[in-house]
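Input record (Table S2, row 357):
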Amino acid sequence: MKNRAIAEVLSQQFGLHGDSVSLRPIGNGHINTTMLLKNKQRALVVQKLNTVVFPEPEQLVKNAIKIEQHLENKAKDGGYNLAIIRHVTTVSGDYLVEIEGEVWRALEFIGGSYSEDVVDSELKAGVAASAFGQFASALDDFDATQLYHVIPDFHNLAMRIEMFEDILSRDPLGRAALCQEEISFCRAQFSLAQEVADVEAQLPLRACHNDTKINNMLFCSESNKARAVIDLDTCMPGYWLYDFGDMVRTFCSPEAEDSTNLANVRVREEIFAALVRGYKGPLSASLTDTEKRSFILGAKVMPFMIGLRFLTDYLDGDNYFSTKHSEHNLQRARNQFALYQDIVAKQAQLSHIIDAA
Ligand code: ADP
Ligand code: GN1
Ligand code: MG
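Output record (adenosine-5'-diphosphate complex):
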């Protein structure tokens, strides 16, 4: 179906009237198809949900609504000051709309905001990390076990390794021959899975965001302050080390996640320090010493695990992440492995920064 026809169905369903309705893509997310649906009075973010990634969209919406309500209650008592991402219902009160077998939902557009893919200053790293810290802190008294596991084993490295080995053994597109070096590199890191499982066993289970990459928060266009934490689709029970690690992964390199300028892929220590301070601030009352000590492992494990997921998807024929060309996932994987190696090389300095904060 053409965009014009999709725009018409969505406008009717979500009650946007008039001839001036427009529909255009926004953002750089890798999973859903995200568009801005707009008329003179109203703007909505409409998303075609990726049902390969989220086979149970109803569960995803139920999780999000629970979190929205919790944050709204917090906001009433002054315990959460960021904008809250809100699902919008159709004229008949539903959250999901099916169009030719595809599932769409709508979110209130948070205007006067922008998202970024690379962090360009310590100030912004601190602002963004503090936003994710405020989000985590507001969920501190939220019972994580209420949430559906929309993607089971999302940050389970042992399972990610199994998936990688399984796809590699089938090598459906014959791409393994093109990435032998990366495959050997991955295999040499597999002991991380046991290391992280041992640490997890000592940590409290939290309601986590699980996808704290920099473009999943919005900055305010006028002030460059934090506006909102978005993309709540992977909020599930988990551990803060992964949320910390995903920020390190996406804030600290001066290069975008898919940059091929590997010589410049590295962790910027001053950005790392600003991130640690920004995240720790709102969490100081609840962060345990064991959790704080686990952060360095999160910083190592996330670039490695996401790199492994990109490589797995490359071998599988790019069925999971959206890609612009056939080498895209391989380029992303190489980039993430370069970042991982720099973090491993600087582990002592980075641990010191965490301890000192
Ligand atoms: P994906 O799951 O594919 O990553 P996201 O929910 O993160 O999709 O949305 C992709 C991008 O769309 C975000 O990075 C942001 O730029 C923009 N976006 C999403 N929701 C909103 C919103 N409610 N208001 C403003 N911009 C949004
Ligand atoms: C995906 O949806 P998006 O683009 O915010 C992915 C994350 C990865 C990230 C890598 C549901 O995040 O897990 O870390 O790409 N989300 C899902 O950039 O798999
Ligand atoms: Mg996103």
